[in-house]
Amino acid sequence: MDIIEMARQLGKEIQKDARYLRLDAAKKANDEDQTLQELIEKFNMKRVELSTEINKEDRNVDRLTELDRELKEMYQDVMNNSHMVEFNNAKQEVDAMITFVNEILMGSVNGENPDLIEHHEGCGGNCASCGGCH
What we know:
single chain, mainly alpha
């Protein structure tokens, strides 16, 4: 099996992982949540309204402030929706898994022993600002 085939197999295994399955279920729940979809649509419309007001030559500062406040409230409504909360939590878990996979791959490319590479929380991949992970 060559490297590309292994990567495809890894992708299939990721799609079987409980973290991925949780994220996939959360995506579907978001799509099926009519209330959430309406909140997102209203948020997007308010964002367009704010953008239109910002681009006017004769901007109304009070109107901009009000639109910005409304947009922030709508954003909070979207983000506080139980399905969106679950989605974000599931996404963080999948992102952490993928970050660790990438750490293993990059460490391997840099000559490290893949079996000894450990996941480091908060590692952004840029070693320039790192205090040391080895």
